[in-house]
Amino acid sequence: MPRTRTKIITALAVLGLTTGCGAADMTKQASPFANAQGARTVTLSVQSWVGAQANVAVAQYLLQHKLGYRVDTVQVDEIPAWDALSQGRVDAILEDWGHPDQEKRYVEDKKTIARAGGLGVTGHIGWYVPTYLVRQHPDITDWKNLDKYANLFRTAESGGKGQLMDGSPSYVTNDKALVENLKLDYQVIFAGSEAAQITQIRQFAKEHKPFLTYWYAPQWLFKKVPMTEVRLPPYKEGCDADPAKVACAYPHTPLQKYLNADFDRSGGKAARFLKKFHWTTEDQNQVALMIADQKLTSEQAAKKWVDSHASTWKSWLS
């Protein structure tokens, strides 16, 4: 899913039951509720990874059951979501990992999008190996030692090089540049989607096999497959400014919310609620785990969380 600038992930997840791929990009379709003047309706953009789905599930449940709104959800990829938000096709984005170009264009220059505060969750992308492998080879968590272990990660797809597993070719990552600029004997191989990547990780873990993967937090899968981050060269402000020259780790990014500017002004209780919506990484992971692993519907997962966290969400309604 790095995301304090244009380095973002678009880990694909089917809206509803799981983190599968295949959900259509609804960018060019307007919600029947979006920009409906005077109506008690809200349209939420759902980014295509399960953590973002968890945010929307809880926000939608509370808007519908506690504030009496009708809520529509639209799945839009990260950058097109900014266009949809600016044009009023959606009213809110609840999890953004940092798009400074879009923020300058729409928030600062055009003023068609308004900041809605932090989500309360900090995101981070990195390279990870299974913790069981670290117990066997403790020095594998230093990128300088990765070439020593490249043979452990070779696959049919990576040829004579080690495999660094990414998600989908549509993801925006630094990994190819990192492999080249750090002169590592690795090949970036795309699993195809977040769901395919999760399936592959779980299969490797079941067989206790080595793997090196691009992954990110928050993510429910860490509870099922413990992983340890490989230390890349430290992140410093601006070290990822030129995508072709990146040779540093991904930053830690406080995730942000944004509203359509008209909705921010006229959205009443719904707009105020979304600006107050603020929870923890643990909260998000609880709901994401219920959706992706326990196979609850988004509404079932949201209800279960809401029923046991009244002290958290009641302040959002005031």
Mean pLDDT across all amino acids:
88
Going by helix content, strand content and strand pairing, the class is alpha/beta
Shape annotation = globular
| Helix percent band | 25-40%
Distance between the termini: 32 Å
Content of β-strand: 15-25%
Number of helical segments? 11
Helix-strand topology string: EHEHEHEHEHEHEEEHHHHH
Please render the helix and strand layout as text.
Blueprint lengths: L40 E6 L3 H16 L4 E6 L2 H9 L5 E5 L3 H10 L3 E18 H6 L25 E5 L8 H7 L4 E5 L3 H13 L5 E6 L9 E3 L22 E9 H6 L1 H9 L4 H12 L5 H11 L1 H4 L5
Parallel strand pairs: 1-2, 1-3, 5-6, 5-7
Antiparallel strand pairs: 3-9, 4-7, 4-8, 4-9
Task: Describe the model.
The chain has 318 residues and is an alpha/beta fold. Helices cover 32% and strands 20% of the residues. The protein has helices at 50-65, 78-86, 100-109, 131-136, 175-181, 194-206, 261-266, 268-276, 281-292, 298-308, 310-313, and strands at residues 41-46, 70-75, 92-96, 113-130, 162-166, 186-190, 212-217, 227-229, 252-260. Strands 1, 2, 3, 4, 5, 6, 7, 8 and 9 form a 9-stranded mixed beta sheet that branches.
Summarize the structure.
The protein contains eleven helices and nine strands. The protein starts with 40 loop residues before the first strand and ends in a 5-residue tail after the last helix. Helix content is 32%, strand content 20%.
Key features of this structure:
318 residues, 32% helix, nine-stranded mixed sheet, disordered N terminus, alpha/beta, single chain
